[in-house]
């Protein structure tokens, strides 16, 4: 019986592949994402031409404090949040031609500045803040009840590549062209044209400029 049902379902799937080719599904997805992006763009401080937010993001907040350049792509599962703490307005700036893969999480209560051509793997975290400071008094509180605290801004240069599951922590500067290996936690600055890996991330290679 199970074999018969399996055969029937496979046959239906094959027939549907002729009646509804994958190119048609891609076209509908493209239209859906463009309409959804257009619905969101007026909420941003700036949202560049041909940039796209794919359906469905996990969380969007404080878009009025966020600027996005031209032809940048956010894949599904995006968390993009800017938190205003007190009178100071947060700022997230993302450059041109960036590709942020699914599950990317960017959150700022102070400043995050990302240059052009950033490429990320999936499930990347870029944050300038945490739930409170590491004091005994605040650790007595539930994490969600601790005040949002930002140590320092995050700056990511041009042409940077962040592998899957990379975490870029507060106060970090990553120079142009840097590569951060998968599963790395970046807690200190990474020089331009360097490769860093590990938890915490350590520089294992730096390219020398050739004139």
Commentary on this structure:
It is a single chain. 27% of the residues are buried. 20% of the residues lie in helices and 29% in strands. It is α/β, with parallel strands linked by helices and 211 residues long. The protein has helices at residues 2-19, 22-41, 136-139, and strands at 46-47, 52-53, 59-61, 66-68, 73-74, 79-82, 91-94, 99-100, 105-108, 111-114, 119-120, 125-127, 130-131, 148-149, 154-156, 161-162, 167-168, 173-174, 179-180, 185-186, 194-197, 202-206.
Overview features:
single chain, 211 residues, alpha/beta, 6-stranded parallel beta sheet, 3 helices, 22 strands, globular
- SSE string, helix = H, strand = E? HHEEEEEEEEEEEEEHEEEEEEEEE
Unreliable stretches (pLDDT < 50, length at least 5) are: none
**How much beta, percentage-wise?**
25-35%
Structural class: alpha/beta
Number of strands: 22
As a percent range, the share of helical residues equals 10-25%
| Envelope shape | globular
Round the Cα radius of gyration to an integer and report it.
21 Å
Strand order of the largest sheet: 1-4-7-10-15-18
Distance between the termini: 72 Å
Q: Could you tell me the mean pLDDT? A: 92
How would a crystallographer describe the biggest sheet?
A: 6 strands, parallel
Count of individual helical segments: 3
């Amino acid at each position: 019986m199970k074999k018969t049902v399996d055969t029937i379902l496979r046959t239906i799937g094959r027939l549907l592949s002729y009646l509804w080719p994958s190119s048609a599904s891609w076209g509908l997805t493209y239209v859906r994402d463009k309409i959804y992006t257009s619905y969101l763009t007026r909420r941003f401080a700036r949202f560049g031409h041909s940039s796209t937010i794919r359906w469905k993001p996990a969380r969007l907040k404080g878009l009025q404090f966020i600027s996005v350049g031209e032809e940048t792509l956010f894949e599904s599962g995006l968390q993009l949040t800017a938190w205003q703490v007190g009178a100071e307005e947060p700022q997230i700036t993302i450059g041109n031609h960036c590709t942020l893969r699914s599950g990317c999480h960017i959150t700022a209560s102070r400043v995050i500045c990302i240059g052009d051509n950033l490429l990320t793997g999936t499930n990347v975290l870029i944050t300038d803040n945490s739930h409170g400071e590491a004091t005994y008094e605040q650790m007595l509180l539930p994490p969600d009840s601790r005040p949002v605290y930002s140590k320092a801004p995050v700056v990511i240069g041009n042409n940077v590549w962040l592998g899957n599951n990379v975490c870029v922590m507060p106060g970090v500067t990553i120079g142009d062209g840097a590569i951060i290996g998968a599963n790395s936690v970046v807690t200190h600055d990474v020089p331009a044209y360097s490769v860093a890996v590990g938890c915490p991330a350590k520089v294992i290679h730096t390219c020398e400029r050739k004139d």
